[in-house]
Design goal:
The complex is a heterodimer of chains A (105) and B (246). By secondary structure, chain A is mainly alpha-helical. In chain A, 86% of the residues lie in helices and 0% in strands. Chain A is built from four helices and no strands. Chain A starts with a helix and ends with a helix. The chains are: A mainly alpha (105), B alpha+beta (246).
């Protein structure tokens, strides 16, 4: 994949993160204002497939954006030109994020 | 006098000049008589005439048009002919080195081949649409696209932006501000077939490799805006890519 495509993916994921981060903050504020207990929040996320799906996409987007950004920093500051560690980092971040989404499903 | 950095030295500037070649070198100290209003180029000329006839440095027009005299002065890339020595001296000292990110030929003379190779890789030139139109394009001087071309086209090719750019230092494949700025002028030229410039700017080391730190704009001696040009290229590239036109 060319550098430009990776740049494009990072730009697109940054836009998605802005939107999804805003939704996440609003949800947090609503839950705190209610106030909802952890059990009440989990009861709602278990009841609807929307929130686990939302946070699964959020986690994948954040993992992709972070891995691409760290990849550029590592290339320019440390001279790491390989791709294997970047793919490995992305895989770990996606796995951690999806595990969290799975728990609230 | 406002402070030690701007205080006029009594009799002489202490000038550390980098001397050497591609194999290596180091700083050599000279004492140059103070002459209020003297430029960095005057300092170099004094050293060559009075202390070191073998000193290699480059200049041509002496009036800020040709872009051939740029050097690093106390760590900052500057044009030697239009930079007054006293205001940029630190406690009466000047450290003058060859331009950063350029291979040295000898002393302060650097090789510009790689600089212009970047312009070629970026297709930093007018590339007319083919076949040519039947009638000559009539472009009003105040047309918005013409204004964008004007803003970019007056680059004097001094290499200061490339020397100032940390992205070039971190990523040697990066085309750099000057080449992309020239490509941006062509993209805004309505007589130009812009696709070639966008494709060149999308290759590895293209516009996306810029981190928008803005050193190119800060140090450009003729007030160009290469960072703005590169941002413009990025916008065009993203739109073209999303529309499948790259």
């Amino acid at each position: 994949m060319t550098e430009f495509r990776l740049f494009l993916i990072q730009r697109i994921t940054s836009g998605l993160l802005l939107l999804m981060g805003a939704v996440h903050l609003v949800v947090l504020l609503v839950a705190m204002q209610a106030p909802l207990s952890a059990a009440a929040i989990l009861a709602r996320t278990h009841a609807s497939p929307f929130w686990p799906a939302f946070y699964a996409v959020f986690a994948i987007t954040a993992a992709t954006h972070a891995a691409l950004g760290l990849r550029v920093i590592a290339r320019e500051w440390l001279g790491w030109r390989g791709t294997a560690w970047g793919i490995g980092l992305w895989t770990v971040l996606v796995a951690v994020g999806l595990r969290a989404a799975w728990i609230i499903a | 006098m406002s402070g030690p950095d701007t205080a006029l030295p009594d009799t002489a500037l202490v000038v550390d000049l980098w001397r050497g070649d591609a194999g290596g070198g180091g700083l050599v100290r000279y004492r140059v008589p103070v002459d209020p209003g003297q430029t960095i180029l005057d300092v170099l000329t004094w050293v060559q005439r009075h202390a070191e006839p073998g000193l290699a440095y480059r200049f041509a027009c002496r009036v800020g048009m040709c872009g051939s005299c740029a050097v690093m002065v106390n760590g900052v890339p500057r044009w030697a002919c239009r930079t007054r020595a006293i205001p940029v001296a630190r406690q009466g000292r000047l450290e003058i080195r060859p331009l950063r990110h350029f291979p040295v030929i000898r002393d302060l003379v650097v090789d510009f081949e790689a600089f212009f190779a970047r312009w070629r890789r970026a297709l930093g030139r007018f590339a007319p649409a083919s076949p040519p139109p039947d009638a000559l394009a009539v472009i009003a001087p105040d047309a918005p696209d013409r204004q964008l071309v004007d803003a970019a086209i007056e680059c004097i090719g001094c290499g200061i932006c490339l020397a100032a750019c940390d992205s070039v230092g971190a990523n040697p494949d990066y085309l750099g501000p000057a080449a992309l700025n020239r490509a941006w002028a062509a993209v805004n030229d309505r007589r130009d077939d812009t696709k070639g410039h966008l494709r060149a700017a999308a290759r590895d080391g293209g516009a996306h490799a810029c981190h928008a730190q803005g050193s190119c704009c800060r140090f450009c001696p003729v007030g160009r805006d290469p960072a703005g040009a590169i941002s413009g290229l990025k916008r065009h590239l993203v739109v073209a890519a999303l529309k499948g036109r790259l």
